[in-house]
Amino acid sequence: MRRMLLAVVTALTGLLAAGAAEAQSGFRVCNKTSWNLEVAKGLNTSTSGQAASILSEGWYKFAPGECATMWPGKLEYRYYLIFAQAPAENRVWKGNVSVCVARQAFTIKSGICDPSLNRRMFFEIDTDESESWTHNLNP
Protein backbone atom coordinates (compact mmCIF):
# COMPACT_ATOMS: atom_id res chain seq x y z
CA MET A 1 0.00 0.00 0.00
CA ARG A 2 2.81 2.41 0.88
CA ARG A 3 4.59 1.66 -2.39
CA MET A 4 1.44 2.34 -4.38
CA LEU A 5 0.87 5.63 -2.52
CA LEU A 6 4.51 6.62 -3.07
CA ALA A 7 4.21 5.80 -6.80
CA VAL A 8 1.05 7.94 -7.10
CA VAL A 9 2.66 10.87 -5.26
CA THR A 10 5.80 10.59 -7.43
CA ALA A 11 3.72 10.51 -10.63
CA LEU A 12 1.65 13.53 -9.54
CA THR A 13 4.78 15.47 -8.63
CA GLY A 14 6.21 14.76 -12.08
CA LEU A 15 3.01 15.91 -13.77
CA LEU A 16 2.93 19.13 -11.73
CA ALA A 17 6.57 19.85 -12.56
CA ALA A 18 5.92 19.26 -16.26
CA GLY A 19 2.88 21.55 -16.12
CA ALA A 20 4.90 24.29 -14.41
CA ALA A 21 7.64 24.00 -17.05
CA GLU A 22 5.04 24.24 -19.84
CA ALA A 23 3.49 27.31 -18.16
CA GLN A 24 6.91 28.99 -18.22
CA SER A 25 7.71 28.10 -21.84
CA GLY A 26 7.66 30.74 -24.51
CA PHE A 27 9.16 34.22 -24.67
CA ARG A 28 8.62 36.17 -21.46
CA VAL A 29 9.36 39.80 -20.67
CA CYS A 30 9.84 41.01 -17.10
CA ASN A 31 9.69 44.61 -15.89
CA LYS A 32 12.55 44.85 -13.39
CA THR A 33 12.08 48.62 -12.95
CA SER A 34 9.98 50.60 -10.49
CA TRP A 35 8.10 52.24 -13.41
CA ASN A 36 5.02 51.38 -15.43
CA LEU A 37 6.11 50.26 -18.89
CA GLU A 38 4.49 50.00 -22.30
CA VAL A 39 5.93 47.22 -24.47
CA ALA A 40 5.55 46.44 -28.17
CA LYS A 41 6.72 43.24 -29.81
CA GLY A 42 7.78 42.39 -33.32
CA LEU A 43 8.70 39.32 -35.29
CA ASN A 44 10.25 38.98 -38.75
CA THR A 45 8.24 36.13 -40.26
CA SER A 46 9.89 36.16 -43.69
CA THR A 47 11.98 33.24 -44.82
CA SER A 48 15.54 33.43 -46.08
CA GLY A 49 15.88 35.46 -49.26
CA GLN A 50 12.56 37.29 -48.84
CA ALA A 51 12.03 40.95 -47.98
CA ALA A 52 11.38 41.57 -44.28
CA SER A 53 7.80 40.93 -43.23
CA ILE A 54 7.54 42.16 -39.67
CA LEU A 55 4.48 41.47 -37.56
CA SER A 56 4.20 44.01 -34.74
CA GLU A 57 1.81 44.31 -31.83
CA GLY A 58 1.41 46.52 -28.77
CA TRP A 59 0.99 48.16 -26.36
CA TYR A 60 1.29 45.75 -23.46
CA LYS A 61 1.16 47.40 -20.03
CA PHE A 62 3.63 46.16 -17.41
CA ALA A 63 3.45 47.19 -13.77
CA PRO A 64 6.72 47.30 -11.79
CA GLY A 65 7.95 43.75 -11.20
CA GLU A 66 5.41 42.19 -13.59
CA CYS A 67 6.29 39.44 -16.07
CA ALA A 68 4.19 38.25 -19.02
CA THR A 69 4.52 35.75 -21.83
CA MET A 70 4.69 37.61 -25.14
CA TRP A 71 4.93 34.50 -27.35
CA PRO A 72 3.56 31.33 -25.70
CA GLY A 73 4.78 27.79 -26.28
CA LYS A 74 8.03 26.51 -27.74
CA LEU A 75 9.87 29.30 -29.56
CA GLU A 76 9.73 28.98 -33.36
CA TYR A 77 12.22 31.71 -34.25
CA ARG A 78 15.70 32.62 -33.11
CA TYR A 79 15.28 36.42 -33.14
CA TYR A 80 12.53 38.44 -31.46
CA LEU A 81 12.01 42.22 -31.44
CA ILE A 82 11.04 44.39 -28.47
CA PHE A 83 10.53 48.11 -27.86
CA ALA A 84 9.65 49.43 -24.41
CA GLN A 85 8.96 52.82 -22.95
CA ALA A 86 8.27 54.39 -19.58
CA PRO A 87 6.49 57.59 -20.70
CA ALA A 88 6.30 59.12 -17.21
CA GLU A 89 10.08 58.71 -16.85
CA ASN A 90 10.95 59.70 -20.45
CA ARG A 91 12.85 56.39 -20.75
CA VAL A 92 12.97 54.02 -23.74
CA TRP A 93 14.55 50.64 -24.49
CA LYS A 94 15.35 50.70 -28.19
CA GLY A 95 17.67 49.23 -30.78
CA ASN A 96 18.38 49.53 -34.48
CA VAL A 97 15.48 47.71 -36.20
CA SER A 98 12.83 50.07 -37.57
CA VAL A 99 9.32 48.72 -36.94
CA CYS A 100 5.88 50.20 -37.55
CA VAL A 101 3.70 51.01 -34.50
CA ALA A 102 0.55 53.00 -33.69
CA ARG A 103 -0.18 55.35 -30.79
CA GLN A 104 -3.03 53.15 -29.49
CA ALA A 105 -3.30 49.34 -29.22
CA PHE A 106 -2.26 47.82 -32.56
CA THR A 107 -1.52 44.74 -34.61
CA ILE A 108 0.31 45.38 -37.89
CA LYS A 109 0.72 42.35 -40.16
CA SER A 110 2.94 43.72 -42.90
CA GLY A 111 6.27 45.41 -43.32
CA ILE A 112 4.59 48.40 -44.98
CA CYS A 113 4.18 51.36 -42.65
CA ASP A 114 1.13 53.44 -43.52
CA PRO A 115 1.70 57.23 -43.27
CA SER A 116 -0.79 57.39 -40.36
CA LEU A 117 1.52 55.15 -38.30
CA ASN A 118 4.88 55.70 -36.60
CA ARG A 119 8.19 53.88 -36.57
CA ARG A 120 10.13 52.92 -33.47
CA MET A 121 13.59 51.40 -33.24
CA PHE A 122 13.16 47.92 -31.74
CA PHE A 123 16.02 45.91 -30.30
CA GLU A 124 16.67 42.36 -31.44
CA ILE A 125 16.97 39.53 -28.95
CA ASP A 126 18.92 36.45 -30.01
CA THR A 127 17.44 33.47 -28.17
CA ASP A 128 20.17 31.20 -29.55
CA GLU A 129 17.40 28.85 -30.74
CA SER A 130 16.28 28.14 -27.16
CA GLU A 131 12.84 26.65 -26.59
CA SER A 132 12.01 29.37 -24.05
CA TRP A 133 13.45 32.75 -23.08
CA THR A 134 12.99 35.45 -20.44
CA HIS A 135 14.14 38.99 -21.16
CA ASN A 136 14.44 41.44 -18.27
CA LEU A 137 13.87 45.15 -18.80
CA ASN A 138 16.22 46.74 -16.25
CA PRO A 139 16.44 50.42 -15.22
Number of domains: 1
Unreliable runs, pLDDT <50, ≥5 residues?
4-22
Shape: globular
Portion in helices: 10-25%
What is the multimeric organization of the chains shown?
Answer: single chain
| Termini separation | 55 Å
Tell me what you see in this structure.
- The protein is globular and about 40 Å long.
- Helices cover 17% and strands 45% of the residues.
- Strands 2, 3, 5, 6, 7, 8 and 9 form a seven-stranded antiparallel β-sheet that branches.
- About 14% of the residues have low confidence.
- β5 and β6 form a beta hairpin.
- It is of the alpha+beta class.
Please outline what is shown here.
This protein has one helix at 2-24; strands at residues 26-31, 37-44, 54-62, 67-72, 79-86, 91-93, 97-101, 106-108, 118-126, 132-137.
Detail the topology: elements first, then pairings.
Layout lengths: L1 H23 L1 E6 L5 E8 L9 E9 L4 E6 L6 E8 L4 E3 L3 E5 L4 E3 L9 E9 L5 E6 L2
Parallel strand pairs: 1-10
Antiparallel strand pairs: 1-4, 2-3, 2-5, 3-8, 5-6, 5-9, 7-9
